[in-house]
Design goal:
The complex is a heterodimer of chains A (189) and B (596). Chain A has 189 residues and is α/β, with parallel strands linked by helices. Chain A has one domain: Pyruvate-ferredoxin oxidoreductase, PFOR, domain III (Pyruvate-ferredoxin Oxidoreductase, domain 3), CATH 3.40.920.10. Chain A has 8 helices and 6 strands. Chain A has a 6-stranded mixed sheet, sandwiched between helices. In chain A, helix 2 links the parallel strand 4 and strand 5. In chain A, helix 1 runs parallel beside helix 6. With 596 residues, chain B is of the alpha/beta class. In chain B, strand 14, helix 15 and strand 15 form a beta-alpha-beta unit. Chain B is globular, with a radius of gyration of 27 Å. The chains are: A alpha/beta (189), B alpha/beta (596). At the A-B interface, helix 1, strand 2, helix 2, helix 3 and helix 4 of A face helix 7, strand 8, helix 10 and strand 20 of B.
């Protein structure tokens, strides 16, 4: 069986690093893996979507609507935006982090106040992870992505992989310890 | 051998390396850029690589290396091939000495492009062989094969990819590099000087070689039949579409998967087509395979009747189009209205300063944009420009448009903007036309010291090159002055400085004849710039903020407004680099500097 995961966030949040580490771990486990990312038009500020599929044999690298077993969202309204991609019975892991898009900043649109409550009403399996807050407490908000990686790995039950070794190899050297703590915190949440 | 997960672009670079490549040139363009970045970053000890000023120059540089005997590659995005088409068509007649590969990265669905052109059509038009991989492993393997075929059939090979092949990652088995000696250069005017007398002969030779190559295509390993037992459906496909076909049909249909798609293996296609009652042709974009299948007499083939010519496919598009749409369950959160999140100019982006200054006088100008990060200034509230066509057009369009405005009594002045890399690409020749035609226009070069939009590639104005070595930086101002632009018709300033910007735009309005503006401030995301700005940001003093929202007018993603308290605040300190644009906007000194 092929499993499909979508990671969504905003440019600069580190979704691609998370996907890269996840892919490497899945290969270590012996799966065929495909990962797809769309580089937006801007370095920062736009919605970023990364997709990962794994199984015995994967053909299409793209996850279509209604196909995702798991959506991991780094920003709460991006979780809502991605919801059509969730498979029936699938799970959403979302941070509560808010990043205001330009139409909200300029007053042309409103940022939804109760996005997570409404999401929970519509989708049975929603796991809220305060990853940004945890990373902030650890001393570097950029570790948000690794907190979410920890939560994701736990949710998928992908245990017998040296995740911490992979994290260490894929983050800047001076941030290794901090990111290992971030992974642990995410895993325990 | 070790296995790695690689993007198609990384795998193409790896294939060129393993296949003994020597020379690589390109101009950056999504989704092709990472091919040269990988060659320049990983294999510079054995492969020369460069960012050329534009695709035509890159194609010619690679052609020169090939004529000289090197295995050579030139990469571009689909529209970049239009720029490079001139040398490519003629090299189609000349053929090669060392292998010559042109990689086109097409972008169906316009993820980051101005059109959806299908560059497969270039292959028959320019008489190039064409190879199409469908995943990263094939990107590597087919690249090695393409180099061999190029030399064997004396033909440049068009290596055709699409966004999903370029940017999706899959598992690749790595091999070792095979060292291939540079072939001896021997002058051969009859082969490489395409004067009419030679060109006519080369055309005959090319047609003969393509006919031979078609025989090879009918039996080669790049084109393969995957027969499903008892299947009544036959599908002909290539590239990424193959993956969707396998997802939808699995073992219920036989598939002819084409990897060598010009010259097309017509015998193989006819043999396959004749076996199936139902015949689908699954290809994104134009009916390229379909037209050939139908020309072979298989008018029962179903292609564009059911599968869209627009955008890109996925498994669902192929399934719904060919097997009928199904009612499928979808979660919906109807109670939440999710605001759009368009890409924006970054916090601290130098282009914001220029376009903000222009926005204050926008009624006096007709503004023309170009391809680059500054294209993001099109959205309100900056509403920066009216046109964005292709690289360099921000200047060349001025020549015609200014005369059209004059002819209809429109007194607004025509102003065009493009970046440093775009200036070197083709803005320079456009500026030459502005000067030579004595056009009464304003040409602005927004110099941020990097090719930013495609992810920070070096260009002729930077002090380093693709391989990381020091390189001479060409001075834009000197180039402009050398065209005859004098002090009265030139302003050079930091675009964050709104006083300087205002003075320049007012001078430009009054001046007669060609006027040039050069704004100079490096992209805020350049590593050295980020390092220099580390710790610098602004903070809002809520006691001084009166809620006038003047700072919101610059559309900076770091500044937000709290409607409850009627105060502005800094929503994203991490990305603020204290460019100072907002400080100039605040008449109440509520925005304060933090950090040294």
């Amino acid at each position: 069986m092929t499993k499909a995961i979508i990671l969504v966030g905003v440019g600069g949040q580190g979704t691609i690093t998370t996907s890269t580490i996840l892919s490497k771990g899945l290969i270590e486990k012996g799966y065929d893996v495909k990962m797809s990312e769309i580089h937006g038009m801007s370095q920062r500020g736009g919605t970023v979507v990364t997709q990962i599929k794994y199984g015995d044999k994967v053909y299409s690298p793209i996850v279509g609507e209604g196909e995702a077993d798991l959506i991991v969202s780094f920003e709460k309204i991006e979780a809502v935006r991605a919801i059509p991609y969730l498979k029936e019975g699938g799970t959403v892991i979302t941070d509560t982090r808010e990043i205001l898009p330009m139409p909200v900043l300029t007053g042309a649109a409103e940022y939804p106040k109760d996005a997570i409550d409404e999401l929970k009403k519509a989708v049975p399996n929603v796991i809220v992870v305060e990853a940004y807050k945890v990373a902030e407490e650890l001393g570097n908000v950029k570790a948000q992505n690794i907190v979410l990686l920890g939560a994701l790995v736990k949710q998928l039950g992908l245990d017998d992989v040296d995740w911490k070794g992979l994290v260490a190899k894929n983050v800047p050297e001076k941030l290794v310890d901090l990111n290992l703590s971030a992974f642990e915190k995410g895993y325990q949440m | 051998m070790s296995k790695m997960i690689m993007s198609g672009n990384e795998a193409v670079a790896r294939g060129f390396y393993e296949g003994g490549g020597h020379f690589a040139a390109a101009y950056p363009g999504t989704p092709s850029t990472e091919i040269l970045e990988n060659i320049g970053g990983l294999y510079k000890d054995v492969i020369y690589s460069e960012w050329s000023p534009n695709e035509k120059v890159a194609a010619e540089a690679a052609s020169g290396a090939s004529i000289g005997g090197m295995r050579s590659i030139c990469t571009f995005k689909h529209v970049g091939m239009n720029v490079a088409a001139d040398p490519i068509f003629t090299m189609g007649y000349c053929g090669v000495n060392g292998a010559l590969i042109f990689v086109t990265a097409d972008d169906p669905a316009c993820h980051s492009s101005q059109n959806e052109q299908d560059n497969r059509l270039y292959a028959p038009h320019a008489k190039l062989a064409m190879v199409e991989p469908s995943d990263s492993q094939e990107c590597k393997d087919f690249m090695i094969k393409a180099m061999e075929l190029s030399e064997e059939y004396d033909v440049p090979v068009l290596f055709r990819m699409t966004t999903r092949v370029c940017h999706s990652k899959s598992v690749v088995e790595l091999g070792e590099r095979t060292e291939v000696p540079v072939r001896k250069y021997e002058g051969n005017a009859a082969k490489y000087s395409m004067l009419p007398v030679n060109a006519k002969k080369r055309h005959i030779i090319r047609e003969d070689l393509l006919a031979k190559m078609e025989e090879y295509a009918n039996t080669c390993e790049l084109n393969k039949v995957e027969e499903a037992e008892g299947a009544k459906i036959g599908i002909i496909t290539s590239g990424i579409s193959y993956q969707y076909v396998k997802d939808v049909f699995g073992e219920t249909a036989s598939v002819l998967k084409l990897g060598l798609t010009y010259p097309l293996p017509r015998k193989l296609m006819a043999d396959f087509a004749s076996k199936y009652e139902t015949l689908y042709i699954v290809e994104e974009g134009e009916p390229y395979l379909e037209n050939t299948v139908k020309a072979l007499g298989f008018t029962n083939a179903i292609g564009k009747e059911k599968l869209t010519i627009q955008g890109e496919f996925n498994t669902k598009v192929v399934r719904d189009s060919l097997l009928g749409a199904q009612d499928e369950f979808r979660y919906q959160v109807e109670t939440v209205n999710v605001p759009a999140r368009p890409p924006v100019l970054c916090a601290g982006c130098p282009h914001r300063g220029f376009y903000f200054a222009l926005s204050k006088m926008r009624d006096k100008f007709v503004s023309l944009g170009d391809i680059g990060c500054y294209a993001l200034a099109i959205n309100p509230p900056l509403s920066g420009f009216d046109t964005c066509v292709c690289m360099g057009s921000g200047f060349s369009l001025l020549v015609g448009l200014s005369r059209a405005l004059k002819a209809q009594g429109d007194t607004r002045k025509a102003i065009g903007e493009l970046g440093d890399s775009t200036f070197f690409h083709s803005g320079l020749t456009s500026l030459i036309d502005i000067v030579a035609s004595e056009s009464n226009v304003v040409a602005c070069i927004l110099d941020n010291s990097i090719t930013a939009m495609t992810g920070h590639q070096q260009n002729p104005g930077t002090t380093k090159n693709l391989m990381g070595y020091e390189s001479p930086a060409i001075d834009i101002e000197s180039a402009v002055r050398s065209l005859g632009i004098d002090d009265d018709h030139l302003r050079v300033f930091d675009p964050v400085d709104q006083e300087a910007a205002k003075e320049a735009l007012e001078a430009a309005l009054k001046a007669e004849g060609p006027f040039v503006i050069i704004t100079k401030r490096p992209c805020a995301l350049i590593k050295e710039v980020q390092k220099a700005n580390a710790g610098k940001h602004v903070k809002m003093n809520p006691d001084k903020c009166v809620g006038c929202k003047q700072c919101m007018k610059i559309a900076c993603p770091s500044i937000a407004f709290d409607e409850a308290n009627k105060k502005a605040y800094i929503a994203d300190i991490a990305n603020c680099n204290r460019c100072g644009l907002c400080i100039q906007q605040c008449k109440f000194d509520a925005i304060e500097k933090v950090g040294e």
